[in-house]
Specification:
The complex is a heterodimer of chains A (245) and B (126). In chain A, strands 3-2-1-4-6-5-7 form a 7-stranded mixed beta sheet, with helices on both faces. Chain A is α/β, with parallel strands linked by helices and 245 residues long. Chain A has helices at residues 2-6, 21-31, 48-54, 67-81, 101-108, 129-146, 162-171, 178-189, 213-232, 239-244, and strands spanning 8-14, 36-41, 58-61, 86-89, 113-117, 158-160, 194-198. The longest helix of chain A has 20 residues, at 213-232. Chain A is built from 10 helices and 7 strands. The radius of gyration of chain A is 17 Å and the shape is globular. With 126 residues, chain B is mainly α. Chain B has helices spanning 3-25, 31-49, 51-61, 66-125. The termini of chain B are far apart. The chains are: A alpha/beta (245), B mainly alpha (126). Chains A and B meet through helix 9 of A and helix 1 and helix 4 of B.
């Protein structure tokens, strides 16, 4: 296990998380003592960068907000440039339990992309109303595309193996929802093996997920559009695989 | 309206809509910039296929000449697109400024380190 975690980069996109991030980083190091942790400060207005650096993480401070997708692109490219095999995305707000990273990495030995799924039996997270229906439809569609049962496709808790890292460094979508939904379509159409592992999610340290009807409707619409274009777009291949052909 | 005009209207509307979708598909246009164009394309398709909808909408809203409604809606959408572009431009300028600021500060840092290195090297030679 130690060799796996030594070649694993934990990427934490963070926006104004000075309150929670220090504890999350310590937990990551407690769970995987020899891993490297990269915090991508996505244009925070607080002391996220300084706090994260003090906690022992490498910190990339973006000059302005790029969104989670843009921050993850920095992470994937950093991993590629510095020879890391695996990238694990962990939320900086403490919603993802760093103890579960090991489970994701274990599954990664036989897969290219492993999702930490909330609805797969563990934890107490529950979405309601239209948002829940959207997630169910989304899960059905993406499960078919990936050829495996996926229940929580908007999960940001995921581990990428060498093949997915190579692919995502080039093609990870920076748009809202693209980072979760479209990235799965890109990976499955590029032939990546996708799995999911049940994880328990903890309540967010700050902020609450919204259940307002208008916001839910807009979310539904954007998911629909994102999915439609994800499937309409031509599939992508990595430079590496292009060279091999 | 002659059948030729009817077909021409539909073809023009479908072409516009098709171009927007194709640009989105090829990642030449981001979703957030495409919203108004998709709405305009859909409206054009509806009105060209069912011209009665235009007459009905015009009379309901009190336009004496239906084509004035077309001009009004077109101008309105173009105005909104232009406004969105101005706003995006403002944002991009701010981003650009942030990058330049970061760049020159990094450049200065590198220069200072290089100078310090030269001083160390010349001292060690003596």
């Amino acid at each position: 296990m130690s060799s796996v975690s030594a070649s694993t980069l934990i990427v934490m996109p963070a926006l104004n998380e000075e309150a929670a991030i220090s504890a999350v980083i310590s937990e990551v190091f407690r769970s995987l003592p020899d891993c490297t942790c990269l915090v991508v400060d996505d244009g925070s207005h607080d002391n996220t960068s300084a706090v994260a650096r003090k906690a022992g993480a490498i910190v990339a401070t973006l000059p302005y907000n790029l969104g989670v997708g843009g921050a993850m692109r920095v992470g994937f490219n950093y991993a590629l440039a510095n020879g890391f095999d695996n990238v694990v995305q962990v939320d900086a707000d403490g919603q993802h339990d760093p103890a579960a990273i090991k489970d994701l990495l274990r599954e990664l030995s036989t897969a290219d992309l492993v999702l930490g799924a909330r609805f797969a039996g563990q934890g107490e997270y529950e979405a309601r109303g239209p948002r829940k229906w959207a997630m169910i439809v989304l899960a059905k569609l993406l499960s078919r595309s990936a050829g495996t049962q996926l229940t929580d496709t908007t999960s940001g808790f995921r581990a990428s193996g060498p093949r997915a890292v190579q692919l995502f460094a080039e093609y990870y979508p920076a748009e809202y929802l693209g980072d979760t939904v479209e990235s799965l379509v890109i990976a499955s159409r590029a032939g990546c093996i996708i799995r999911q592992v049940p994880v328990s999610m903890r309540p967010r340290a700050g902020g609450t997920p919204s259940h307002k009807p208008i916001k839910a409707a807009v979310f539904l619409l954007r998911v629909g559009v994102a999915m439609l274009f994800a499937f309409l777009r031509p599939p992508v291949v990595t430079k590496l695989e292009q060279d091999q052909k | 309206m002659s059948p030729f005009q009817y077909i021409l209207g539909i073809v023009a509307a479908l072409l516009t809509f098709g171009i927007v979708i194709e640009m989105l598909r090829r990642r030449r246009l981001r979703e957030r910039h495409a919203g108004w164009w998709i709405i305009a394309g859909l409206l054009a398709i509806i009105v060209s296929v069912f011209p009665n909808t235009l007459e009905w909408a015009a009379s309901t809203l009190g336009f004496e000449v239906p084509v004035n409604l077309v001009f009004f809606v077109s101008l309105f959408i173009l105005f909104l697109v232009a406004l969105q572009h101005s706003s995006e431009l403002t944002k991009l300028e701010a981003h650009n400024r942030a990058i330049v600021e970061r760049l020159v500060i990094l450049e200065l840092k590198v220069q200072q380190q290089e100078n310090a290195q030269i001083i160390v090297n010349s001292k060690s030679k003596k």
